[in-house]
Amino acid sequence: MRADVCMQVIFMFGEIDCREGLLLAVDKLKYADIQEAMGVLADIYMEVLTRTVRDRDRDLRIFVHPVPPVLNETRHIVTPFNDLMRQRVRPHSLLQTKNVAKYLLSLASMPAISKL
Fold first, then answer.
1. I want to staple 25 with a disulfide (CB 3.0 to 4.6 A). Which of 30, 48, 96, 113 is the partner?
2. pLDDT of 1
3. pTM score of the predicted model
């Protein structure tokens, strides 16, 4: 790969976890409450993200897309989970949160990710 090329990858995960997984884990008493479950899930996601960056050359830029808060029934979980992930991602120089959903309706008008 050329030295001036930076690969850009968008990770978007957590919708099913926020809709079902976190609540099931708390219901099964794996965690004391939803906040603890979200913290453990964020730890797992951050391990995967940081391992992905660490195992690649520094020419990889990872963007973490927030979980879309589209369902009224899960918005009370999705919103704080997105806030938690933003806090966890912020200190990492090769990780960045980006919400590109507004561009998905019109891919022709989507700018390069690095310009978002």
1. 30
2. 46
3. 0.77
Q: Which value, in Å, is the radius of gyration of the alpha carbons in the chain? A: 16
Contact 14, 70 (CB under 8 A): no
101 contacts 68 by C-beta, under 8 angstroms: yes
Neighbouring residues of 88: CB distance < 8 A, sequence distance ≥ 6:
42, 45, 46
Three-class SS of the chain: CCCCCCEEEEEECCHHHHHHHHHHHHHCCCCCCHHHHHHHHHHHHHHHHHHHHHCCCCCEEEEEECCCCCCCCCHHHHHHHHHHHHHHHCCCCCEEECCCHHHHCCHHHCCCHHHC
For residue 100 the two structure tokens come to 């590109």
Distance CA 63, CA 97 (A): 5
How do residues 22-70 score in pLDDT, each as one tens digit? 999 999 999 999 999 999 999 999 999 988 888 776 678 888 989 888 8
